[in-house]
Structure formats: C-alpha cells, structure tokens
Amino acid sequence: MRKALLATFNLILFTLGLLVIIYFWWTLLAKNYIGGESHGGDYFNALTYANFIYKYHPFPPQGWLPFWNEGWLLGGYPWLFFYLIIPLVKFWALPNAMEALATFLILLYFISSFVLFWKISKNILVGFALTLITIYTRASYYQLTTVGSIVSAGGQFFLPIMLLLIYLYEETRKTKLLVISGLLGGLAFLYHSPLALLTTMIPSVVILLSYDSKPAGRKILIKLRDVVVFLTISIATGSLGVYTLIIQTFEGSGVDKCTSPECWGVYPRHLQTWLNLLAPGVFIGFLLVLLVIFIIKRRFSLKFLTPSVFSLLTLIAYAVLARLKLIDGITNSFFPTRTFWAINAK
Q1: Residue 301: which region, alpha, beta or left (left: phi > 0; alpha: psi -120 to 50)?
Q2: What is the DSSP string of 120-140?
Q3: Contact 47, 34 (CB under 8 A)
Q4: Alpha-carbon distance 187 to 194, whole Å?
Q5: Domain extent at residue 320
Q6: Of 252, 272, 306, which residue is a domain's last?
Q7: What is the pLDDT of residues 158-200, one digit of tens each?
Q8: Are 216 and 296 part of one and the same domain?
Q9: Is the same domain home to 27 and 67?
Q10: Residues 161 and 220 grouped into a single domain
Q11: What is the mean pLDDT of residues 256-280?
Q12: Do 199 and 239 reside in the same domain of the chain?
C-alpha cells in the first residue's frame, strides 16, 4: 500500500513537473521563436539546406548540393534533421517547421534531463529543481536564438537520454539498455557527427568507464567490454555519419588550420578567463591536490575522478590549441559559442 501511494505521489509530481517545464519552454522559447524574428547566420544557412532538400532530394539522402561548399549530400552538412522537417510542412511553412522541430527537440532535452536528474538524485524534487536551473539559464537554447545553430541546438537531447540508459544499465545490468544507448549514439552520428563525437559519445564513454553501482567496483575488462559493445553498435548504426566525420576531418576545407577568427579569437569577455594559458597550470594544480588526497587517504576512486578530469582536460586542450592557432578543420564545428554554450550563456 505504501509503495502504491508513493508511486502515485511521484506520478502526480512528475506530471506537474512536466506541465511546468512545458510552460517555461513555451513562454521563454517557443512562443517567440516559432514564426518570430530570425537570428544568427547559421539559421539562413540551415534554411537553404532545408529548402533544397525538401524540393530536390527525397529520402533516402543522395545527390549533389550546388551551393555553399558544394559536394555530395552524404559527407557534407548534417542532413537527418532536414528530413525530419518534411512531415511538419503539412502543418507549417518550411521556416516555421524548421523552428518548430528545433524547439520541440529542446523540449525533449528538458524532459529527458528531468528524468535523468530525478533518477540519479533519487529525488524528484531535486531533479525538478536542477531542470528549472537548466531552463532558466538560457544556456540550452542560447546557440539557437543567438547564433542560429538550428541543427546542433536540436541535437542536445541525445546526451541525457543516453546517459540515463547507461545509468540504468549500470544499475540493472540489462544488456538491452546498453544496446539501445548504442543505437541512439549511432543516430547522434547521423544527426550531427562532429558534435556527437564531442558532446555525446565522449561523455557516454567516460561514464561507462567510471561509473559503477557496486561499492567494490567492477573489473576494468568488463568496463572495456561494455565500451567496445557500445562503440561498435554506435559506429555500425551511424556509419554514414562517421563517414561524414572522416571526410570533414581529412578531406574537407581547412584541414590544416581553421582560418575563421571564430575558431580561436571570438570569445565572450567572461569566457576569456576560462580559456587562457593559465589553464594548464590550474589543471596540474588540480591533479596535485588529488595526488595529496590519495597519499593521505590511500584511496583512489575512478567513479568521482574520471568525469571531472576529462571535463577539465577537454576545456584546457581547446584553450591551448586555440591560443596557439593549431585547431584543425574539424574544429570549424567547435567554435566557442557552440562548444562552450553553457559557459557562454548569461
């Protein structure tokens, strides 16, 4: 009886939480964005692709794009998002359909983050509070409303769903959860392969390697096996996206260095304090503190250490490469406003 009452209470709270999330999503983003004034150069870039694919390239993706950088549809600009727009054109004009899909995917990101926070914290109120913070900071839709990054902004929902599945897999050891997460990883590659690699696949692999529900921990070989299974499914499912990633990295424009100042010089003022040559010193100091703690306590926990180290390492590696202007062609997709959107947002 007590479990039934608790489940009913959580269901009521979850429903109320969803309604509040939808309300804030509508008032802060969707109401003014769908059919409103367009912002950001990437918006019009995406609209050009959407219009051309809708008129001349029916599914499955094939053919030639005669504008921008030109080239085959496969191996160029991310295409999956634009095919998802087509059913919505029955209800909206093409620009509004593109805006509606992007904002809906951000709503899916909010909802999946809510469930992820709830399950990890094991407290629905804590999960709801963290989700409200995520919405209120504007970070989740900053790149959409300011830069016009339609495709990449919409693809954020992959990460919380995949992390939720990985968390549930670690808790239950049900292989189908790992398989589904791998399939979603493949879809993320198809959706936007460069950003999927950085913002979805790497965090998922880090969690697979570091998280463990057992206090004693599992053997590293088991974790490596899980990573191999996850990556194999993701790469096999998203092979067309992986192909695009390889083409853009080694055969695309600007393979020597990124020539756009956005790649290394255009930072918001408050972000410059994060991306400077002092960052390696901070990182080394952080590692020394961890070493001292390990020497004193004689304990070493990958569960808590690995995610923070990888996060700092990503930030610092970008900072150093950007300052030295050694960023290669793939990093045209990783300019600061997109890569560090959570830091950028005010």
Answers
A1: beta
A2: HHT-HHHHHHHHHHHHHTSGG
A3: no
A4: 13
A5: 256-346
A6: 252
A7: 999 999 999 999 999 899 999 999 999 999 999 988 888 888 9
A8: no
A9: yes
A10: yes
A11: 56
A12: yes
> What are the tens digits of pLDDT across the range 58-112?
787 777 777 666 667 776 678 888 889 989 988 888 889 999 999 999 999 999 9
71: left (phi over 0), alpha (psi -120 to 50) or beta: left
Phi, then psi, of 64 in degrees rounded to 5:
-120, 140
Helix, strand, coil content of the chain in percent (nearest 5)? 75, 0, 25
Residues 114, 200 share a domain: yes
Dihedral over Cα of 332, 191, 102, 54: its sign: positive
- Give the Cα separation of 166 and 164 in Å (integer): 5
How crowded is the C-beta side of 280, counted as CA atoms within 13 Å? 7
> In the predicted model, is pLDDT for residue 41 greater than 80?
no
- Segment 241-257 mean pLDDT: 65
Q: Which two tokens stand for residue 139?
A: 């970070």
- Three-point CA angle 340, 113, 78, nearest 5°: 55
| Same domain assignment for residues 292 and 149 | no
Q: Are residues 273 and 337 in the same domain?
A: yes
Q: What residues pair up with 64 in beta bridges, in sequence order?
A: 72
The chain-wide mean pLDDT, for the chain, equals 79
Confidence of residue 284 (pLDDT cuts 50, 70, 90): confident
Residues 6+ apart with CB under 8 A from 81: 46, 101, 150, 151, 154, 155, 191, 192
- Write out the two tokens for 314: 């990503």
Using a cut of 0.70, tell me whether the model's pTM lies above it.
Answer: yes
The answer to whether residue 269 scores a pLDDT higher than 60 is no
The H-assigned helical ranges of 2-123 are: 2-25, 31-33, 41-56, 80-85, 94-121
Summarize pLDDT for 42-57 with one digit per residue, the tens.
788 888 888 888 888 7
The domain boundary residue, chosen from 212, 231, 252: 252
On whether both 184 and 315 belong to a single domain, the answer is: no
Helix axes 302-323, 202-210, angle to 10 degrees: 150
Give the chain's domain count.
2
